[in-house]
Amino acid sequence: MASRISTYSNLVFKLLLLVSMIQLGSAGRRLTESTQPDQQMQFQYHNGLLLHGNISINLIWYGNFKPSQRAIISDFVTSLSSSSSKPTIAQPSVATWWKATEKYYHLVNSYRHSSLFLSPGAQILDEHYSLGKSLTTQQLVQLASKGAKQDAVNVVLTAADVAVDGFCSSKCGTHGSSLGGEINGKAHKFPYIWVGNSETQCPGQCAWPFHQPIYGPQNPPLVAPNNDVGLDGMVINLASLLAGTATNLFGNGYFQGPKEAPLEAASACTGIYGKGAYPGYAGVLLVDPTTGASYNANGNNGRKYLVPALFDPATSTCSTLLV
């Protein structure tokens, strides 16, 4: 009997690893695997640029989003920087979570005294699906190019009825860079992020733990803190990709594993949101007594969010807001 139980456990573990291959592109959010990073693959700094300075986050909305849905994301962006967070915001906060990325900068001499301040930028609406409802990666770059290309990160957010190459089958979003012209006679690259609304296409892959996963333990899904499974899932993916963009700006910053499929600051800790997390269980979280929603971070305008654990380069462990 013990042998059968062991065999069954191994099969479940292998299934979880199979599901974990669905990634956030270069950010590599592994959806249901919640383990510490493989210590045999060292998390390293590869001498590349880190995002720094005063950076605007431009939001490019592609397709049909309600104003209330746009507010969920824009309030999250506003909540990121501590100087924009009101002192009355309860802890733990989104700003406290984001501040943990500073540890990466402190370990690099050339960035030790640098600062990164994120602020809300422009919001660009493309409600009429100017490029259709099935997008290629190149078209995502085309959309990202609508935002400012200097001192900015352009975030493309696609609606629930928009298909994107690789969406659901291999990724929930991605971050990358593209040429944005010349500045002072030198070619300039700008960073961009894409995140898709998975509510109707693949919530089991891209909106867990607010929807039951396709494989693995079938625990009841958590109640989404903003009562929108698709948008609350997008927040998790956007948070992971922003952390990856900041610490691995052009693919030669901080990451673990192969450059083609790196594990980054958040994607190295996929599925971990609170203490005691394991595959299929997000960990111990806060629960809103009124709505029953699960969360681990407070934001501006009374918002509550679920944000991923971040890999701590000083301790080589996944660090959560709730300990």
Automatic annotation (TrEMBL):
Location of this chain's protein in the cell: Secreted, Extracellular space, Apoplast
UniProt keyword list: Apoplast, Secreted, Signal
Superkingdom in the source lineage: Eukaryota
This protein's record includes keyword RNA-binding: no
InterPro entries: EXORDIUM-like
Signal sequence region: 1-27
Listed GO CC annotations: apoplast
Keyword Signal: yes
Family under the similarity heading: Belongs to the EXORDIUM family.
Name of the protein in question: Protein EXORDIUM-like
Source organism of the structure: Quillaja saponaria
